[in-house]
């Protein structure tokens, strides 16, 4: 099984961005964690990050066409983008929405997600460990 892990805007700045909210781990640490968990689960994982919405839409279309399961942290687009929702809606395999912070403890504008009601599952508030939990869930491993 191959899983695409798709990260949206500003997540490339993890470690430098609001460490009180997002912790001190970097995007490279996130990739390393996903690679380690993938080896353990014997699955293939590819982690991508973009600040461009059209690039994200292209990756979601690719996942739909290749029937790949997806872990997505759409970051700010979670709260703003009907286009990202529509692209996620086309996915034929499970997709899991992940947020590093607990968006429900934060500003009111972060408490609505355009993805949660169509996601297979949602993981929030566990830092980058949320990605490991999502991969385990997709692989059916406890
Ligand atoms: C985030 C939460 C979003 O509200 C925010 O815009 C992000 C990161 C998270 O992982 O906690 O960029 O998705």
Which helices and strands occur, and which strands form pairs?
Blueprint: E1 2-7, H1 19-22, H2 27-41, E2 44-49, H3 53-66, E3 70-73, H4 82-89, E4 95-99, E5 121-124, H5 129-139
Parallel strand pairs: 1-2, 1-3, 3-4, 4-5
Main structural class: alpha/beta
Given this structure, which CATH class is correct?
Alpha Beta
How many H/I helical runs? 5
Order of helices and strands: EHHEHEHEEH
- Shape, per Cα inertia axes: globular
Q: What are the low-pLDDT stretches, counting only 5+ consecutive residues below 50?
A: none
CATH topology: the name is Rossmann fold
Strand content: 15-25%
Largest sheet: 5 strands, parallel
Q: What small ligands are held by the chains?
A: 1,3,4-trihydroxy-5-OXO-cyclohexanecarboxylic acid
CATH superfamily: Dehydroquinase, class II
**What is the domain total for the residues?**
1
**Share in helix:** 25-40%
If classified by CATH, what would the architecture be?
3-Layer(aba) Sandwich
Cα-to-Cα separation, first versus last residue: 17 Å
Strand order within the widest sheet? Answer: 2-1-3-4-5
Mean pLDDT across the residues is: 97
GO biological process, one term: amino acid biosynthetic process
InterPro entries: DHquinase_II, DHquinase_II_CS, DHquinase_II_sf
Binding site for substrate: 73, 79, 86, 100-101, 110
Pathway: Metabolic intermediate biosynthesis; chorismate biosynthesis; chorismate from D-erythrose 4-phosphate and phosphoenolpyruvate: step 3/7
């Amino acid at each position: 099984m191959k899983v695409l892990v798709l990260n949206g805007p500003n997540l490339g700045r993890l470690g430098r961005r609001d460490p009180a909210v997002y912790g001190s781990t970097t995007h490279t640490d996130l990739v390393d964690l996903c690679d380690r968990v993938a080896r353990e689960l014997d699955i293939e994982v590819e982690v991508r990050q973009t600040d461009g919405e059209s690039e994200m839409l292209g990756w979601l279309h690719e996942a739909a066409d290749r029937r790949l399961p997806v872990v997505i942290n759409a970051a700010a687009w979670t709260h703003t983008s009907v286009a990202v929702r529509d692209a996620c809606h086309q996915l034929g395999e499970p997709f899991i929405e992940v947020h590093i912070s607990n968006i429900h403890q934060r500003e009111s504008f972060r408490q609505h997600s355009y993805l949660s009601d169509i996601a297979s599952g949602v993981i929030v508030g566990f830092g980058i460990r949320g990605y490991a939990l999502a991969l385990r869930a997709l692989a059916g491993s406890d």
